[in-house]
Amino acid sequence: MRDDYRRALDAAAREYEALGEQRRAIDQRLAELAQSIGTLSRLLGLTPTVPLGLTDAVRLVVRGAGVPMTPVEVRDRLHAIGFDVSKYTNDLAAVHTILKRLNESGELRFVARAAPGSPHRYIWNTGAVPVVLTKDVVQYMHDNTLERDAAQATDIEVSPPRRPRRKRRTR
Questions:
Q1: What is residue 121's three-state secondary structure?
Q2: What is the pLDDT of residues 60-81, one digit of tens each?
Q3: CATH of the structural domain 2-124, one choice from 3.10.180.10, 3.90.660.20, 1.10.10.10, 3.40.50.720
Q4: DSSP-derived 3-state class of residue 69
Q5: CA dihedral 18, 22, 25, 28 (to 10 degrees)
Q6: Is 72 in contact with 91 (CB distance < 8 Å)?
Q7: What is residue 147's predicted lDDT score, i.e. its pLDDT?
């Protein structure tokens, strides 16, 4: 009976992971098509019946890119797909604000500067893929934790470092 449950759990986990991959592929393709539709509509002189806001346009651009993008690259891509940013006095500041808000909400992931002087970037946050941990994996993790704790143990009592005293300002 337990083996039946284990097989059912394994099958459900595999299907869940496969569907997650399909969802990511569909989201990627939808973003690409939305950009193509927007660009082709602009080239034909058509105006969209549902106006796209800046936040949705930034989502569309970053999701469709698939690689980390700088705020300047996002703004340039918005121009390329025909998004009208003329209503913003400082379009780059507006893009920066949107990127920060999307990062805070978890939709985007901030990628720190690779080298000093290089710009920071943002990438679409695809989310974590759930993994089913079997009993032997959990046992191994547990054993490793105890082993790591034992390796860090010392016989010497170590006191926490003292905070340096602040010097008073003299006027």
A1: strand
A2: 888 878 788 899 999 988 887 7
A3: 1.10.10.10
A4: strand
A5: -120
A6: no
A7: 64
Pairwise CA distance, residues 66 & 57, whole Å: 15
Boundaries of every domain in the chain: 2-124
Burial class (CB in 10 A: 0-12, 13-18, 19+), 71: buried
Tokens of 27: 């989201």
Burial of 122 (0-12, 13-18, 19+ CB in 10 A): buried
99: exposed, middle or buried (Cβ count in 10 Å: 0-12, 13-18, 19+): buried
Claim: this prediction has a pTM higher than 0.70: no
In the block, tokens 């034992």 appear at 150
- C-alpha distances in Å from residue 132, one per residue of 16, 20, 84, 100, 136: 11, 14, 46, 33, 12
| pLDDT band per the 50, 70, 90 thresholds, residue 171 | low
d(CA 109, CA 102): 8
What does R_g of the chain's alpha carbons equal in angstroms?
Answer: 25
Rounded to whole angstroms, how far apart are CA atoms 70 and 96? 9
